[in-house]
């Protein structure tokens, strides 16, 4: 089973091709508790089937602590987690490696 959760409409870019009209003025977001509940429901619905969850937005990295908690929870529940990002948060190689390492190690 493969699911995509759009956890925020907030984005630091205003791309003309954005199919969900996300941008800097948008503030809608799912709470951490809501996303965790949805992951738990997806795990139950998958009934042991492999579960892949992709987190997207807007830009999920704009609230890194929420993203980290969601990735950790999904990983702990056995889901294969991924994230769609515009990469703007990777202002340096050091920062990119640091944040991606935290996400890779989440839930272990």
Uncertain spans: none
| Major pleated sheet | 3 strands, parallel
C-alpha geometry: globular
- Average of per-residue pLDDT values: 94
User: Structural class, please?
Assistant: alpha/beta
Q: What's the number of extended β-strand segments?
A: 3
- Helical segment count: 3
Strand portion: 15-25%
Calculate Rg over CA atoms: 14 Å
Q: Measure the end-to-end span.
A: 22 Å
The protein's oligomeric status is: single chain
Helical content class: 25-40%
Strand order of the largest sheet: 1-2-3
Task: Give a written overview of the molecule.
By secondary structure, this protein is an alpha/beta fold. Helix content is 38%, strand content 16%. It is built from three helices and three strands; from the N terminus they run βαβαβα. It has a three-stranded parallel β-sheet, covered by helices on one side. The protein starts with a strand and ends with a helix. The model has no long low-confidence stretch (mean pLDDT 94).
List keywords for this structure.
108 residues, alpha/beta, 3-stranded parallel beta sheet, 3 strands
Brief rundown of the structure:
With 108 residues, this protein is of the alpha/beta class.
Chain-wise SSE layout:
Layout: E1 2-8, H1 32-46, E2 52-57, H2 64-76, E3 80-83, H3 93-105
Parallel strand pairs: 1-2, 2-3
Helix pairs in contact: 1-2, 2-3
């Amino acid at each position: 089973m493969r699911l995509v959760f759009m956890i925020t409409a907030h984005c630091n870019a205003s791309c003309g091709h954005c199919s969900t009209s996300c941008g800097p003025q948008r503030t809608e977001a799912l709470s951490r508790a809501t996303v965790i509940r949805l992951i738990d429901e997806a795990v139950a619905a998958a009934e042991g089937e492999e579960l892949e969850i992709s987190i997207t937005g807007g830009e999920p990295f704009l609230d890194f602590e929420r993203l980290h908690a969601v990735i950790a929870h999904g990983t702990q529940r056995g889901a294969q987690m991924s994230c769609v990002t515009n990469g703007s948060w990777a202002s340096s190689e050091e920062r990119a490696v640091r944040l991606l390492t935290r996400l890779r190690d989440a839930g272990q």
